[in-house]
Amino acid sequence: MKTFCIAGRYGDILIALPAFKYLSDRSGQKVRVITSSKFGDIFDGVSYVEPIVLPNELGEEDDAMKKFIRDGHPAKILRWWMAGHKPEEDWKDLPAGKDEVVFRGEKWVLNFERWPNYQTSLFDRTGVPIELMKTLPLVFDRRDAGREAELVKAATKKNKKGLPLLLHNFSGHSSPFAPMPEVMNQLDKWRDKFFFIDLSHFRCHRIYDLLGLMDVAKLLVTIDTSTLHLASASSVKQICYLNHGWSSSVPRGNVLCTIRYKNAIKNLNKLNHFISSTLNT
After folding, report:
1. Are residues 80 and 121 located together in one domain of the fold?
2. Is the pTM here over 0.90, yes or no?
3. Are residues 120 and 149 in the same domain?
């Protein structure tokens, strides 16, 4: 079984997990993954990965991790832009093309037909067919029902009227959401119909504990961040705000609609429409 390297962040790992499950199911073996001490705890929630957790509080494939790979632990670095350009690094399978993208401060020439966005590029480097990216399930087979129940209890203790839950998250590290004030102002008009829970305020024991809240919620409104990727492991209905350009994600699961960041303000009516449709089902 091939070893992969993906230090984080959580969103990146969530993109790769369905591929890891697919490879494990086909081989009957756990997939080995070199990861960071900062984000590696997400693998506690799955049985099909054997994590190799290295000290790393950056959540990036740093020099120490690359040295570990070169010193007898060969691994495929999934985030190709972190691999570097040295001959011993694994970056030569970038699909040839004429499209240019500036990513992490460096210019790359890619084939956008094969890699139309960052998410597809990461998934493709696992070796799993790209066409399976939208359909393979995100599976956490080591969820903790007790922790999830405690989280739901704490998050809903002020919901005295028993209103349906509306989860929202407008906080993201890699894809900040500038129109948040306008969108939040529109959402606030629904506070008499829903009980609002801001997921960015929760620091769970494990990020996948949020699935407990998602499973009992009526709706999730999320920007292009880890909660967007995590939601595909739940049946929760989603309204997804997507970053523009090559950095945008491909949401999966029960997606009602997608709205680009740059179109967020002029699509407030669209937001209203889908919130209303959710309440009436």
Report:
1. yes
2. yes
3. no
